[in-house]
Specification:
This protein is mainly α and 388 residues long. It is built from 13 helices and five strands. Helix content is 42%, strand content 5%. The strands form two sheets. Strands 1-2-5 form a three-stranded antiparallel beta sheet, with helices on one face. Strands 3-4 form a two-stranded antiparallel ribbon. The structure holds a DNA duplex (21 and 21 nucleotides). It is found in: Nucleus.
Amino acid sequence: MGRSPCCEKVGLKKGPWTPEEDQKLLTYIEEHGHGSWRALPAKAGLQRCGKSCRLRWTNYLRPDIKRGKFSLQEEQTIIQLHALLGNRWSAIATHLPKRTDNEIKNYWNTHLKKRLTKMGIDPMTHKPKHHEGLGSGSGLARDTANISHMAQWESARLEAEARLGKESKLGITNANPLQHHLMISSSPNPAHHVVHVSKAPPALPCLDVLKAWQGAWSLTTKSTIRDNVNSMVFSGGSMTAVDDLESPTSTLNFPHVNNAFNPPPMQNINNIVPCESGLLQDNDNVTYGYTDASAAWFAHNYRSGSIDEEENVIVTTGLSSMIMEDFADVLVYNSEDHQQNASLGGHISQNGVGGNGSCGGDGFEENRSYWNSLLDLVDTSPSGSPVF
DNA sequence: AAAGCACGCAACCGCCGCTCC
DNA sequence: GGGAGCGGCGGTTGCGTGCTT
């Protein structure tokens, strides 16, 4: 009954690996690569099954593995991603550089799961076990709603990716606006990135929405903010005014500024961050949390066909280094856009969606009007492009 | 000091999906 | 179309270690 185990052959060793075995495996892979795992043990002189070798390599011997304690940020990332993806450890691991799925799984099972349970949170649903006293407008309730929206969004993205992958394998080209090329050109000051959308090769790398989102809430310390000043959206006025921003497709609630997954409001941040960009004025407050998401949202809709303008330019007030990395394969650096971007930055504030200038108080557009204003800019900006 | 217990982690097992023939 | 082979994934196990009694 059932499938026979892969190590059924007599004489194949099981259990902990010895240093000698590790060395044999390392030496062989360094010289020849792993190729076929099934054939590898014999060639490497190991009395192990291929599966065991693969596991030892991927979980332990690989040179690009980070070992040791998980940082607070890594913990937060795991919890967030688990809320979105469930026990899909390999998917979670792709968002944690140098960590293996096995390590993350172990860490979840031995640490994080218990911690959440202690906090009264169901580690599987990420919802509070007891809902008494939590009104629908509570932070936790909103967080749950946000996660739900993010999961919906991520799910849509995965579907789109899968479709793209199949289409690209079938050799379908130019049949879908998703297959246009997405480029971001950037000024010398990366606070002003410009995203060009144009016809281009079909093989699009996927835009990692989760990382984008993660990048929006993970910048929590002053030093990090200093390092990432260029990833911020410049805005003024009330933080609550940007609550519940939704994309036109209603698949995404932008993370709330004050919930558990976002950094706290950063007021008067220019006290600690030099206004190098030229966009910031002395009295501007700075917040962040939706620039990356905006770019991600655009890419998502562009690739799903909701936006099909060609030769568009998206001006952003900044993308985090993280999302820049995600875009890296499709980015084109263009330093000539610096001045143009700066002026478009002003354009943003005139439309009440952020940017520099004196948009204080409650002067932000909300929800649909926010997104509509962005889309309107496709027609109104000098380059015929939406502005984030 | 020794036994019992809890914990963490490496490794195994079985299933699934993809690819090739 | 379907079966075999293979790699990958997630659940689980079992051993080593450190702590408690």
